[in-house]
Amino acid sequence: MSLCTSSPYRRRQDVEARSGHSSDNEDYEGSSSPFNITSTKNAPIERLKRWRQAALVLNASRRFRYTLDLKKEEEKKQIIRKIRAHAQAIRAAELFKEAGERVNVLGTPKSPSILNGDYTIGPEQLALMTRDHDLSALQQYGGVKGLAALLKTNHEKGIYGDDEELLKRRNAFGSNTYPQKKGRTFWMFLWEAWQDLTLIILMIAAVASLALGIKTEGIKKGWYDGGSIAFAVLLVIFVTAISDYRQSLQFQNLNEEKRNIHVQVIRGGRRVEVSIFDLVVGDVVLLNIGDQVPADGVLISGHSLAIDESSMTGESKIVHKDSKAPFFMSGCKVADGSGTMLVTSVGINTEWGLLMASISEDTGEETPLQVRLNGVATFIGIVGLLVAFVVLVVLLVRYFTGHTKNSSGTGIFTAGKTSVSDAIDAAIKIVTVAVTIVVVAVPEGLPLAVTLTLAYSMRKMMADKALVRRLSACETMGSATTICSDKTGTLTLNQMTVVAAYVGGKKIDPPDSSSLLSPILSSLLFEGIAQNTNGSVFTPEGDGEVELSGSPTERAILDWGVKLGMNFEAVRSNTKIIHVFPFNSEKKRGGVALQLPDSQVHIHWKGAAEIVLGSCTRYIDADGRVVPMDEDKVMFFKSTIEDMATSSLRCVSLAYRPDELENVPTDEEQLAHWVLPEDDLVLLAIVGLKDPCRPGVKDAVRLCQIAGVKVRMVTGDNPQTAKAIALECGILNSEEDVGEPNIIEGRVFRALSDEQRKEIADSISVMGRSSPNDKLLLVQALRKRGHVVAVTGDGTNDAPALHESDIGLAMGIQGTEVAKESSDIIILDDNFSSVVKVVRWGRSVYANIQKFIQFQLTVNVAALIINVVSAVSSGDVPLNAVQLLWVNLIMDTLGALALATEPPTDHLMHRPPVGRREPLITNIMWRNLLIQALYQVSVLLVLNFQGRSLLGLKQDSSDHANKVKNTLIFNAFVFCQIFNEFNARKPDEINVFKGITRNRLFMGIVGLTIVLQIIIIEFLGKFASTVRLNWKQWLVSIAIGFMSWPLAVIGKLIPVPETPFHKFLTRRFHQ
Fold first, then answer.
1. Tens digits of per-residue pLDDT, 607-657?
2. Neighbours of 1015 (CB within 10 A)
3. CA of 966: how far to CAs of 221, 230, 731, 733, 980, in Å?
4. Inter-CA distances, 687 with 558, 609, 680, Å
5. CB within 8 A of 803, min separation 6: which ones?
6. Residues contacting 231, CB < 8 A, separation 6+
7. What segments bear the compositional bias annotation Polar residues (predicted)?
8. Which of 241, 541, 746, 1061 could serve as 193's disulfide partner, Cβ 3.0–4.6 Å?
9. Is 582 helix (H, G, I), strand (E, B) or coil?
C-alpha cells in the first residue's frame, strides 16, 4: 500500500499543526476569571470545567443542557477508539498478508452462495469483503467489473435509477441511514425542570403548609396557602419544560440539515446530485478532492486518488487508492485526486454507520456569551442568597421576639401562648418567602436566554440561507471587524461564459466561430477541453438539450468547446488517459497525459493564463503550424491577458506538449508519482470568462462598511481581474486605492516576515493570485492585530484558514465537505449578501441578550429591595411566595421569549462591532436600569408605608386595607414590568414601538401576561392572597406602570460617559 505524501491535504494538516491556535491560547492564558472566555472555539476542556465549577447553579441539568457534555464526550472518544482499533487490526492483517509469500490461487470466479432477492450476493458478504479489505475475495468475484455484474450495475453508466429499482436495492441491501438515538421526550424535560433545588424546597414547604392548614383550619379553607404555592410551582415547571422542549425540537431539525450531504452519482449515464441518504448499493459515485466518502465501496477508476482515513483509523496517513488498495471506508475524506467508486455497503453495514449508531451526537456547546452570563448570574445569585438569608433571619427574629404584628397591631407570637402548629406554620411561611426571593434573585433563565435567542436565530438564518454548524459562531459574527471573502461565486454569480478567445495567435470574434480554426488546432483544442476536465457533457437521446456538469469554469469551457463543434464522447473514446495532475490551487493549473491510438503521448495543461503562458515556448498559428514564440508575441499575449483582466474577465490558457511513450513509467507505483512535464509547452488558446457581480453585492459591501466591518477580497485570480471586480463591488472606492498595499499579490505577501505581514495586514483590501496558505497567513496577521475575522472558503485547501479564523464561512454549493466540516456556518446560496445577513443576526443575538439583561436586572433589583426594606422595617413582605413566582415566570421564561426573539433591524448595522471584551452591561443599560428600578422601588415603598392614607383605605378594616394595599403593590409591580418590557426593546432609542408589529410573539406574550394578571387579581384571590380591585385602583396600577414610558424618554436624554462603569469604579478604587 502506498502513501501519497505530496497532496495538498497533507500540506493542510502540516500547516494546522504548525500554526496551532496561538491567538486562542493567549485568550485563555491571560485571564484569571473562569467566566472570561472570549472564544470557545478549540477551548481546553480544563477551562470549560473551571467555569462550570465556579457557577452558582440551582438546576445543573437544565442550566448546562446545551453546553458540551464532558462525560459523554469522553464516552464517545472511547467508542471511537474501539472502532479505530478494529480498523487498525484489519490494516495490520492486510499488511501481514501482503508481506507473506503465500500464493493466491485464482481459479474461476467465486460463486456467491447466498441468494438475495434478484441479486446473487448478499449484504453480509459485501460488508465482510470491504470491512476486512479482502482483495482475494474481490478477485474471486471477478474484480470490480465482476462485482458490478453481480450487483447488476454498469460500471461506466451506473444503475438506471428509477424508483422501482432504488426500492428493490434498499430492500436487498439496506438504506444509507443508521438508527439514531431518540431525542428527549417532553416528559424528560418536565423531569429536568423539577430538579431545581429552590422549587423542591418550595414544594416541601407547600406540602408542610398544606398538612398544617388542613389540620388547623379543615380541608375547605386549610388547603389554600399550601395548594396555591404548589400550583404556582407546577405552573413554573410546566411553562419551563414547554419552552425547553420547543428549543430542543429546533436544534434537532437543524442537526438533520447538517447531516444531509449531497453527492454526485452516475445513473443511466448521466451525472446527478443526490442526498447521501438516497445512495444505494450498486451506485457509481464520483469522488473529487474534498469530498466525503459516502458509503463503503470499491475503486472503479482513479487519478492520483488519495484518501485521508484518519477519521476511522486515527492515523493521519494519506492512503493512495489503486488496484492493490481499492477499498473505501465510509466517512473518510478525499485528500487528493479524483475517481469513481462502486458502492458495496451502506448504512449500518459500514464501519461509519456502526460508529454513528453507537454514539449520540452531542450538539451541546457553550458560547462565550453563555459563559459570561453564567458569571453574571452567579454574582447576582450570591447577592440574592445573602439578601434572602438576611430576610430569613430578620423575619424569624422579629416573629419569635413578638415584633411581628398583625393588622390590629398586636404581636402574632407570644411565648407560651402561641401553639406549636401556628409557630411552625408561620416559620414555614417565612422560609417560603426567603426561598422564593432566591428563586427570583438567581437568574437561572439568563444563560438559557442565550440558547433561546440562538435557537430562534438559527431557525431564521436557515431562511436567510445560512446553516449554523457551531452555536458560538452566531454571536461571534456580531463582533466581526473584517470579512475575507472569495471572489468567484461569493461576490460574483459563478455563472461563467466564454466571451473572448485568442486562438491561433489572434482573437476570434465571435469566440465560438469554428470556421476560423484549422483542423489540427481544433483537434488538439478539443482533446485538451474534453480530457483535461472534471466535468462532463451528456447528450440525451433525440433532440434534448446538452447537459453540462462540473465547476462553473469547467462548464463554461466545455460549453465553448461544444459550440465550436466538439463531440465530447468521441474525443474521450479516441484517447486513453495515462495520468492526471488534478488542478492545484498552489500551482494554479491542472494537467493530463493522454495516449493516442498511434501510441503518441500528448500532455495537456490548463490554468491561470499568465502562469501557463510562462511555460510556453511555442504556439500554433491560424494555419495549424507550430511557431516559436518571440519576444513580441509574448508581449502581445501578456497585454491580451491584462486587457481581459482589466475588463474583469477570468483568463485561462490551454496548452500542450507532445511526448514519447517510453518516457511514461510503466510501473503502477511509479506512474502514480510521475510528475507531468510542464515546460516547453505549445500554446493552444487563451480564453476570457465573464462572471458578473451578484446583484445587490455593492449595497451589501457598503452596509458592511457603514457597520464598521472591512470587506477584503482574497482570490486566486489575476490581480487585474480582482481589482476590476473590487471596484465594481465597492471594495475599492476609486482608482486612487489601487496601489500596494491596498492591492497585493499572494507571493509578495508570503515573502514578508511575520512582523511586516502584521504591519500591512490592515491596509490590504484585495489579494490576487493568492494560495490557500496566503489566506491563512492573512487571517493570522489580522488576528494578531486584534481583529475578529470571518473568512469564506470553498476548497479543501481553505480548511486551515476556515479553522484558524474566528468565524469560518463555507460555501454550500461550491464548497467541499472538508471545507464545510472546518467551517462554523455554511452559506447555502454562496451569496455575499447572505454573509451580511449573518452579521446582522450575530449583532441581533448580542442586542437581544442585552435587552433581556436590562429587563431582568430591573425586576431583580426592585423585587429584592422592596421585600428587604419591608421585612426589616415591618416584619412583613408585600410580595408573597405565589406572587414572586408569577413575577419570576414573567421575568425568566416569558420575558426571555418576548425579548430574545426580536428580529434584527437596520439600526444594528449603523453601529460599530461589539468588542468581545466589552462589558455585557453597558453604561446606557446601567442608566436605564437604575432609573426604572429606583422609580419602582420609590413608588412601591411609598405605597407600602403610606398606602392606606394615599388610597383612602383608612375607613376600611386593617386586615382588608392591608390586603388591598398589598394587592395594588403586586398589580402595580407587574404592570411596571409589562411597560418596562417595551422600554427594554430599544435601550438606546426614543421610539420603543418601532417595528413592534413585526414581533407577534412579543405582542402575544404581553397580551397573555395582562390577561393572566387580570385573572389572578379578579378570580384567583385565594390562591395569590389578593383581593379584587375597583376600577380606580386598576387605573392607579396602570398609571404607575405607564409612568415608566415618559421616564424612559427623559432618561435617554441623559448623556452617559464612554468609559465603562466598572472601569470607572476600578480606577477610583485604585486611586
1. 999 999 999 999 999 889 999 999 999 999 999 999 999 999 999 999 999
2. 11
3. 21, 21, 63, 65, 21
4. 12, 8, 20
5. 16, 822
6. 882, 1023
7. 30-39
8. 241
9. strand
- Quick one: which of 325, 361, 352, 365 has its CA closest to 341? 325
DSSP 798: G
Q: Among candidates 844, 918, 885, 836, which has minimal Cα distance to 1016?
A: 885
CB 943 within 8 A of CB 968: yes
**Helix H or strand E encompassing 548:** strand 547-549
Q: In the structure grid, which three cell numbers stand for residue 10, read together?
A: 497533507
Distance CA 45, CA 28 (A): 11
How far apart (Å, rounded) are the C-alpha atoms in residues 855 and 892?
Answer: 10
CB-side exposure of 74: number of CA atoms within 13 Å?
3
Residue with cell 461509519: 352
- In this structure, what C-alpha cell is assigned to residue 176? 444509507
What SS3 string covers 754-785? HHHHHHHHHHCCEEECCCHHHHHHHHHHHHHC
d(CA 236, CA 59): 14
Rounded CA-CA distance 882/433 in Å is 9
Active-site residue, from 196, 486, 876, 892: 486
* DSSP per-residue codes, 647-690: TTEEEEEEEEEEE-GGGS--SHHHHHTPPPP-SSEEEEEEEEEE
How far is it, in rounded angstroms, from Cα 836 to Cα 832? Answer: 7
Rounded Cα gap, residues 785 and 776, in angstroms: 14
Q: Is the peptide bond before 741 cis (omega within 30 degrees of 0)?
A: yes
Continuous segment of H or E residues that includes residue 850:
helix 832-874
Instruction: Tell me the C-alpha distance between 425 and 423, whole Å.
Output: 5
532: DSSP letter:
S
Query: For residue 95, which of 426, 327, 332, 325 has the smallest C-alpha distance?
Result: 325
Q: Does an H or E element contain 299, and which? A: strand 296-308
pLDDT tens-place string over residues 678-695: 999 999 999 999 999 999
Residue 680 is among the residues annotated as catalytic for this protein: no
Residue 644, CB half-sphere, CA atoms under 13 Å: how many? 27
d(CA 835, CA 825): 9
For residue 719, whether the previous peptide bond is cis, meaning omega lies within 30 degrees of 0, is no
> What pLDDT score was predicted for residue 795?
80
Closest CA to 962 of 971, 970, 973, 953: 953
Prediction pTM value: 0.79
Q: Name 896's Cβ contacts closer than 8 Å, sequence gap at least 6.
A: 243, 445, 448, 449, 452, 453, 852
* pLDDT at res. 1069: 47
* Element at 442 (helix H, strand E): none
E strand or H helix that includes residue 827: strand 825-827
Rounded Cα gap, residues 858 and 936, in angstroms: 9
- Total residues found in the chain within this entry: 1071
Rounded Cα gap, residues 202 and 329, in angstroms: 56
Task: Report the percent of the chain where pLDDT is more than 90.
Answer: 38
Contact 475, 458 (CB under 8 A): no
Residue with grid cell 437561572, as numbered in its chain: 444
DSSP string over 1044-1065: HHHHHHHHHTS---SS-HHHHH
Cell 467508486 found at: 341
Segments in 464-579 forming alpha helices (H): 471-476, 519-531, 552-563, 568-574
Confidence band (pLDDT; 50, 70, 90) for 104? very low
Query: For residues 537 and 564, is the Cβ–Cβ distance under 8 A?
Result: no
Type of residue found at 264: Q
Long-range pairs for 538-546: beta carbons < 8 A, 24 or more residues apart: 538/269, 538/270, 538/271, 539/568, 539/569
